[in-house]
Fold these 3 entries.
Entry 1:
Amino acid sequence: MARISLDFDRILGRVDPRIFGAFVEHEGRCIYGGIVEEGSPVADSAGFRTDVRKAIEDLQVPVLRWPGGNFVSAYHWQDGIGPKDARPQRFDPAWGAVESNRFGTDEFMTYCELLGAEPYVCLNMGTGTLEEAMAWVEYCNGDLDTYWANRRRHNGRQEPYAVRYWGLGNELWGEFQVGHLSVERYVEKAKQWALALRRVDPTIQLVACGHNGWSDWDRLVIDELVPYVDFHSVHIYTGSDDYWSNVLLPHQVDRALRASRAMIDRARYVADVRHPVHVVYDEWNVWFPTREDRRRDKIVAERHTLSDALAVATYLNIFVRHCDTLRMANLAQLVNVLAPIVTDDSRVLLQAIYHPLRLASTYTLEFALDVAVDCDRIEHADTPDANRMTHRIADLGPFDVLDVAATSDASRSRLVLNVVNRRPDAPVEATIDLGSAQVRGEMTARVITADSPLTTNSFDHPEAVSVSERKVTVTGSRIPYEFPACSVTQLAFEVGE
Ligand code: AHR
């Protein structure tokens, strides 16, 4: 029998809603054929697909990162403004694609406003110049009678967009990145850019380009850039065809957040930096790229399984538990490519990973609670893996078979538990111990599971992995509950003393 023990006095911190952010990139069918499909019967007059928009709205995305990713490192934003038919069609060296530029800055900002999401723009530090980046900030945020602010007005937008978040480049540590830099050259350049960009708009918040959170690149970027930025970014994708690796690999984010936090604390102390610097995990998801996927002409279209949904739920639990360090996360890439939402010409499909995302973004409460979990533990040896995107995790184990995050509201009258049962073949019986609190009335149980860890949703079987919801009458402060094999469960309680 497992035990999940809660104490409402053990508050880890406030959960930042920006951890439910997302990322859209000009890659594959994310933008064209996903977010926009001009002339389609399912698109509105601006060309935005209404079915996709509805699915995104249900995820309540608070912040949206754009335009890349690798794409941004050769993207010239000025190609994407003004009359659409006059915009140049360009070669995109990141993905070997043709970029029509029909979706540009104004379309992105409009889309964010429709969604109620804050825009987060990543800058081109590959082929882009500082002058171009300063002009982009002026175009978006300028309120004076100046050239780029006036170009925005001329293009139909009077008020500044007031874009708060700006990323200082994308993954410049990688040789695959157009304009790849050594860390020494990156920090030199990023410092110069940060100082100049803040002269255009001192209110912007800047994100330094980190790596996996614990690398030498991260260490040097943190040491040198903490005085100049507000956030340090981390990217980790995980995925494996080995079940246990797939569901446990997200724990690398524990390492990433602990290491980045320690390095940031040290750098702030050494340089006597008074402003806070937090971590942004601005690209994450389950991605198991095969060699085939890596071909330049191949459009990535990940099909997510139930076990991927468990991994995504685990990521989200980790984000909640590290709420003190992590202040924003952006799921890649929201629509098509690696995505909770996929489209064909006229339909939307919600992949398995959509469901834990929606449950977490809809029901997570304001404060994260520390939870003690007593259950079986898994020792996991690293599996040899040709996939370069996975990393070792054996050092992080053993792992609880149940992964749990708990949140409560300020008045301590509501409690939400998110529990991942990673045992693929057996339920886990548990007692949920609420300490001195008592349940009032019914408990809502929302469960995501299916017959097999490899179950996927498809246009033919769109609900093979979905959420079943039921109300259960429970009393007292020790609640018995059986978590189904290979499942994500959300339990919501009204509680009192
Ligand atoms: O999400 C796909 C790609 O993965 C992004 O463009 C890049 O930043 C990362 O390497």
Entry 2:
Amino acid sequence: MKKLTLLGGITPRQFLKEYWHKKPLLIRQAIPGFKPALSRDQLFEMARRDDVESRLICHFGKQWQMQHGPQGELPSLDKKGWTMLVQGVNLHDDKADALMQQFRFIPDSRLDDLMISYATDTGGVGPHFDSYDVFLLQAHGQRRWRIGPQKDLTLIEGMPLKILKNFQPEQEFVLEPGDMLYLPPHYAHDGIAVGECMTYSVGFRTPSYQELGEGFLQFMTESIELSGRYADPDLEMTNHPAEISRAMLSRVAAELEKIRFREEDIAIFLGEYLSEPKPTVFFTPPARPMTMERFTQAASKRGIVLSRKTRMLYRGKHLFINGESFMVSRSDKAALTALADGRRLDGAEIPQVSPDVLEALFTWYRDGWLELA
Ligand code: SIN
Ligand code: CO
């Protein structure tokens, strides 16, 4: 495996073994000559859209204030101590998406999104911790990070955002454009802008087991099949008509214990769950879609690419795309897994796929889930 400048000259395997979930890593010039994907004004423009999640955080005096987007008028650029965070920029911008792709040594099922923050001098979100790992890439200007491994994660009550009560930083670094800081989950940190700055955060998904459990049970309601209906030919007379009898309880328990799930059910649930786009995501179908015939011809020549917004995963013979699952035949598997891993498929592959898959590709094209390359 290749050593990556992005990881300070170590291989992804080494990074995962030594740092991932374990300890911070500061990488000077992770991306030498880094140029921001978006200008300040483009970021502000994005924060005004209603299909983009954003937060404006003002720390004026001792007060913290937070306002969710879409943003209207922002404070003046001369005013110190405010920051604006825009979530999911990779869904809307090719350069931001390309940057995220560099982190695909970590699986798509774990990658969340690229957040971009803009801050005026002294701006930041306060000392806090996150429950996921994060890569903090300095994009423009300087930011001073103070970090610490503290166990006391008590937060100040009554704040509009998570602020640590007793922040005890142990290390401090000033990041320049192209520098990057990796932090494991629950590592306390505070990043303060030194003059105007922009920071990119590559964040990860860490669904709670509670959330997964609730989702799985909901998923299972669609697939359980129990036959028969309650019956009690042996019913006995009762002097306690309000009591649920032991006999009834045992009979129902015996039937419900027939509910079984296999690892394959969990795989299908996980694939559908993890490939489901966030509720704010809307796909843009082609304005004048081609006919199936024209699409097949054009795709065979040019190839296809997944939309930035499409989430595509697979496990065994199951393929998942934007919350839907499909069983894939052995002969189609190579092409579809190549599309999922590479997020594009060469034209030469298109005539090889079965008519069913071709039809699915056409539907995904019409829904804006993929495009011609
Ligand atoms: C920021 O970019 O200001 C905040 C990122 C973070 O601390 O997670
Ligand atoms: Co953070």
Entry 3:
Amino acid sequence: MRLSQMLFVTLRDDPADAEIPSHKLLLRAGYIRRIGSGIYAYLPLMWRVLQKVSQIVREEMNATGAQECLLPQLQPADLWKESGRWDTYTKAEGIMFSLIDRREQQLGLGPTHEEVITTIAREMIRSYRQLPLHLYQIQTKFRDEIRPRFGLMRGREFIMKDGYSFHVDETSLKETYQDMYQAYTNMLRRSGLAFRAVEADSGAIGGSGSTEFMVLAEAGEDEVLYTEDGKYAANVEKAVSLPIDAEASQFTTYQKHDTPGTDSIEKLCQLLKCSPTQVVKNVLYQTVYDNGMTVLVLVSIRGDQEVNEVKLQNELTKIAADYGAKTIIALDVPNVETQQTWTAKSLPLGYIAPDIADEYIKGDKQIHSQFVRLVDQTTVDLKNFVTGANETGYHVVGANWGEQFKLPIQIVDIRKARLGDRAVHNPEQTLFSARGIEVGHIFQLGTKYSQAMGATYTNEQGEEKPLLMGCYGVGVSRLAQSAVEQSYDQDGIIWPVAIAPYHAIVTIPNINDAQQVQIAQQLYTELNQAGVETLLDDRDERAGVKFKDADLIGIPYRIVTGRAIANGKVEVVERATRKSQEIVIAEVTTTLQQWIAAAIAAKN
Ligand code: ATP
Ligand code: MG
């Protein structure tokens, strides 16, 4: 492609609304254009990158025996009602775009495709002989994200590879899961990314089977905790660890203390001169179930620890049936205003004890009249602890479970693991923290969808069984931008060779020099014919402008038909290292072919 004929517009300055380097660079270098919030046009250079990433993904998927297909983006609401996800996905903070057609039928724009694929499986898979089966697609997804941001990182329209597998049993599901683990590892390595596979939260479905693939970068929205021995890595949402030991309590008798102005653990510990590890702190949450029922939750956790809201949400989902519901649609710490909607009298906030009376709740049809009391395991072994006295300005000390406070039946792990904690597998190892961009997620679904939607098969014994399922997603557009987030310098993007839009750019410093032009055109033709994807910068611009643009768009090799042509040579510059060398014109094509092959092979 000749730059003179391309829609090639680069920006000198950082666009105002872009916060992270990759977003700024892709906009400045003319790869993408913002059309609306979370909506981007992939311009020709970007489209080439996306095609390359897609091709790597496709090759790795096909190598496992998965088959490519293309499912509809427009999905009938009925399917989502069958799986029970319509309300969660369209109401409150739901992320599905929904619409009503001219026949008054409700439809959604696909944020994911479990319902569609399960319908197909239900209709087409009859026998164990057809299994296992794995279908995937590479397609645009729609999600009405609450906070679209960072360009392609969190778009409302983005490209995903999603695959769904069907199995007779756990063993078969785990085999495919392992294959996917390997395929994802290959995809990311081949795309030139530094990444980590981490244990991930699999929601209330539980199970061991969920791994996220995190591209390591400061701009990542996720936190990863890992040990240096390489044996443990998990998303902070899921991570477990051993907290530091609690200090022994200096209180030996149960007493109520006047503790004015101590509505925080810090102030309380200062006043009582005690360690936060001796305190049972009681945190109030409010959750709304999918049937509209509001339930108040009191979490008791050690004073130096924090609640992991993902773990908390999973616990509350497990007990949804107790409230006649299936899932949770909201979970937060109630503010003063929302508290007023359910309190019968004002709460001793900051001084609450684990046994705060249910009478504080003004129960009605929509508000459950009792607290759900969850005790984190960090508090269970505390002796002579400090906690609230259920009276503003007072705490109790020297308290014990089984004496002053009943230990509720629900003892759970809802604490947030954090940097510096000891690892469970080996307490000598401590947890380190890194930021990550989730580019892939593989998941053992089990029978969640097949059971809800009645997708069964007949086994060898002639019995009808629900299909076991796995699902596997890669954010193709997010992955492409992550590559930039990991690889750039002050002058622009440095694409990994395997996913660069072009391998080389031939720059003519002076288009009025007939010899420069002639050699450049000759090289341009020769390189492209030899499979080296090459751009020709034949624009009527100053050489400096052209060099700047070439650096900005990040093409791995720049070939300059400058002064060296007098000696039958051209200058070849490697973008990543800026190493420059003069190469005999006749050898340029084979040299570049070798370099490119070597760069790609190094990652294969
Ligand atoms: P996140 O936690 O970042 O919202 P998710 O858990 O909702 O992601 P999945 O449903 O597992 O994502 O989707 C599979 C992959 O699709 C993700 O690993 C990610 O790479 C990509 N993806 C998800 N949401 C977006 C988005 N809004 N924009 C771009 N890519 C996305
Ligand atoms: Mg995910």
